[in-house]
Structure formats: structure tokens, C-alpha cells
Design goal:
single chain, 6 helices, mainly alpha, 147 residues
């Protein structure tokens, strides 16, 4: 009981998040790869509206991920450094307004299929599953034996 917590690292949640700086890059690349595979397969077997919807949804998902990454890093800078918040509520909703308006216009102009747009937007889910499988693999491979 003579051990005390290290006061330098007072927020373990922030330390865990910043422990893997390559996570965001891997998720972004996996999203791009998933969208690319979906569009490539769709070009061969699906109508052009579905292919366009997958492409548009994938691009919107990548843009959303990029914007969200900037928003989150700004929010954590506020928490860690005590800076004044730079993120306004308007910027947060503007992101969804742009994505929703683009998807709605593409659907209404009959350029893309709405289910295909939603499937393209779901590439983030694919990226999370790939990252979870990666972490699970490394947890099994690098586990320590209990003696």
C-alpha cells in the first residue's frame, strides 16, 4: 500500500486514446479500401446508380471521418491544455448538414441509390470491425503466459 498513482498521468482515458497514434490512419485507410472494393465489385455486377451511391457514400464517410477527427482533437486539446473551445455547435451540425444534403440531392436527382449511399457511409463500421480483429489478433499473439 505504499505505492501511489503517478500524478503526472492524471487522466488514464486520454493516455489510452493517445497510446496508438496510427489508429486513425488505419481506420481511414480501411474505410477507403472497403469503399474501393465495394465500388469495384459493384461496377461489375450492379446498375450504375448503385455504383454511384457506393462511391458517393464512401467519399462522404471519408470526409466525415476527417472532419470528425479534427473536431475530436480540438475537443481533447481543450480538455488537456485548458484552452478555450474552438469548436462551436454550428460546425458540428454543419458537417451533418453537408453530408445529409449531398445524399438527399443525389437521391432526388436520381444519380444514386439511397441504400447504396447508406452502405457507402457504413464503411466506418467495416473499418471498426477490421481494427477490432487486428487488436484481437495481437492480444492473442502477444499474450503473456501465466506462470
Amino acid at each position: 500500500m505504499t505505492r501511489t498513482a503517478d500524478s503526472k498521468d492524471s487522466n488514464p482515458v486520454l493516455n489510452e486514446i493517445s497510446a496508438d497514434p496510427g489508429l486513425s490512419v488505419r481506420v481511414f485507410r480501411t474505410m477507403a479500401a472497403a469503399a474501393g472494393v465495394a465500388v469495384s465489385v459493384s461496377v461489375l455486377i450492379a446498375p450504375w446508380r448503385i455504383t454511384t451511391g457506393l462511391l458517393l457514400g464512401g467519399l462522404l464517410a471519408l470526409i466525415n471521418h476527417h472532419w470528425l477527427q479534427g473536431s475530436i482533437s480540438a475537443a481533447f486539446r481543450v480538455i488537456v491544455n485548458g484552452e478555450t473551445p474552438q469548436l462551436t455547435l454550428g460546425k458540428y451540425f454543419f458537417r451533418y448538414l453537408v453530408i445529409g444534403t449531398t445524399a438527399f440531392l443525389a437521391y432526388k436527382l436520381r444519380v444514386a441509390s439511397l441504400p447504396a449511399i447508406l452502405a457507402g457511409l457504413s464503411t466506418f463500421v467495416v473499418a471498426l470491425f477490421v481494427e477490432a480483429l487486428r487488436e484481437f489478433y495481437f492480444a492473442i499473439i502477444q499474450r503473456e503466459e501465466i506462470s
